[in-house]
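User: Hi! Is it possible to get a structure for several chains at once, not just one? Here's what I have:
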Amino acid sequence: MRWMVELSCYLAVAQMWNLLAGYGGLVSVGQQAFIGIAGYALFILSIRFGINPFVGVALAVIAPALVAVPTYALLHRLDGPYFAIGTWVIAESFRLLTTNMDFVNGGAGLTLRAMTQFSAQERAIGMTSWSAALILITVGGSYWLLRSRYGLALAAMRDNAIAAESQGVNVKRLRFLIYVAAAAGTGLAGAVYYMAQLRISPVAAYSPKWASVCIFIVMVGGIGSIEGVLIGALIYFASDRLFGEYGTTYLIVLGIITLLVAIFARGGVWGVVSRYVGVSIFSTRRIFARGDA
Amino acid sequence: MQWLDALIQGILLGGMYAQYALGMTLMFGVMRIVNIAHGDLMILLALVGISGSAMFGVGPFLVIVLLIPIGALLGWALQKGILNRVIGGDELPSLIATFGLSVALQNLMQQIWSADSRSLPGGGLESASVNVAGVYIGVLPLLVLATAVGLTGGLDAMLRFSPFGRALRAASVDSEAAAITGVNPRAVYATATAAAVAILGIAAVFQSLRATVSPADGPAQLIYAFEAVIIGGMGSVWGSFLGAIVLGIAQAIGFRADPGWGILMGHLVFLLVLAGRPQGLMSRNR
Amino acid sequence: MSEAVPILSTHGLVAGYGDFQALFGVDFEIAPGEIVALIGANGAGKSTFLRAIMGLLPSRRDMIRFDGAPIGGAPTHSMVGRGITMVPEGRRLFTGMTVEDNLRVAMDCARSSARRSESAPWTIERLHELFPILADKRGTPVERLSGGQQQMVAIARALLGQPRLLLCDELSLGLAPAVIRDIYRSLPLISATGTAMILVEQDVGLAKTTSHRLYCMLEGRMTLTGRSENLDQAAITDAYFGSHHAVA
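Assistant: Yes, the chains can be modeled jointly so their relative placement is included. Here is the combined structure:
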């Protein structure tokens, strides 16, 4: 149960990050802002307004999408690395803001008591359905998006934003839409995740750990492809289960792997596999030569 | 009076942030290389300094003398081993590589030094103060500010007038054109990163004298340095100094209003500048 | 050719970008003090050829020889130390820096390389004589200069590297005819100091009148070479478009 929710949440946030960084060229290290906002929205809807959490998850997604609009308006002026750290500042601001709000019990966090009204079986069904819906919406939605008429524009933007712009792709608008969509998708994962956790606190929900999860999964799996994210999520999830008990040593190794992938294997595991095997399960990836020219 | 005091404390705090921001101005503002591990390197140097001081019983000023070459060596290795392999074209690889480095460094430090906070004994320096027109000002914060001014002036002059500064500016604008003019861009970058991390060695000593450091502090320092650079205006050395002072004042005044709001106030000022004057207060508009 | 020792020669030079091959076995030579023009259609490989000489593209060591020593694929900045500099296509000045700072980058590098300890021929003063406008504009950021003035800065920057071989990529590109005339008038003065020059040029007439010898490139190969005054127009047209070219 729990592992299924975790895996689907990792998969979802990673795929949303892949959409942002891999296609939109928007590298964020602050997606945890949307995890926290949606998670808190769910808890507030349930605690303050008595809304059934299983329904609340769907409503909670609105909050991160709304917040993403002014956030993007501020951040889009920053390019590349500046954008990345800017997203981090935003996430930190929301963490501090939440910590300072008595309304949500400050730094101590909230508990989702409403879940006790459901039987274990009801909870299992609800969580399973939401996990499935989460994957369907984020991964399936991305797949649909990339196969749609926007797909070609997105792929063109991924390969060369300036060239795409000159070919009539409205890069600005597309980036904005991706940012908001990714905020909603990431938020959905956050709401599902904290519904299963039953507890939320600013330190955990707005933790940069979420950013490292995204980055590890997407970079190691293979950026700019859905297969890569699936592989990356499985690798991350398995290693978390197997080696998580080693604590800091495990994290040192994860960090070094990320570093090595960035230097030596930009395409990640999937990049290496598809180069040698030449197959593609989800044919969303259009291969272009990425030479020095 | 209370607010005047907050203002003064803010300027002094800004002096500390200016020291973090200098290395970032050089790497980020001039070379356009992003180094997420910036704060972690500072913490690493601070912890090395604290342990070294305890082990060999040396005072803070000797620690500075030791940390500068260690920092330079670290920076040089960072550029040669990692950054030179990932620069050119898009920034994603350098961002990801240093992000991985940051995670690895934080956890490595936690394993070596544990998660405890530590500080460097200053032999009474940290508590000494002077009375300036009725306001008590700490000697150490004054020293921090004076050092920041000196370093900023030095870095600015080096960039403007020295052959190395010209070569670095040229390589940052167009590394290929610099190479056909005879500049070795990779060597210049390695020297610049060595200088940036060496400056962090100085900042590390002051940080561990005036407060405590723990392995998880790096990201916060990175964010302050980044905010200072953006508030001030990218590529301007004195701009990032000004940005650091503005950030320090915002945090000190926020803190005086409510202790929970200090850092948040800094972020808000940063976001305000981003909304109202995205090119920064002292942009060179290049 | 009668020139006994070429200052630079290439031998079956092969180069390209990633998987894309642009040069297919180019043989070339230039004597000290000689001006050689290199003409050809867009995409013929002229710029690639210059970039390969400059070490901006990898090539096998023995494919390029300078003073008889193999230098193919050596780091670009070391080419300057040996005595090869370049005026790149599109000028590629250091924007945000003044004219003087642009030139000083080159001077700093020339000073630090030991070869030029005695009597360097090119100084800021001599360049101000060659291009008087640069003296007036020394404190101006380069992006505020006109195209012709920028080209002069680019030439001056290359000369301050004290080259014995100067590579010029499309000096006339995007400039007004009067400005082109001014710039080309300076080339014999540069050549008079003993500097050899390779001029990549689109304008065939200009290339012929300025150079001693001429090479023509087509699809990554040399298709014609000879003394510029001896080459007739038909031969050049053939070499330029290929012998099976459609009637224009």
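The radius of gyration of chain A is 19 Å. Residues 2-207 of chain A form one domain.

User: Great, thank you!
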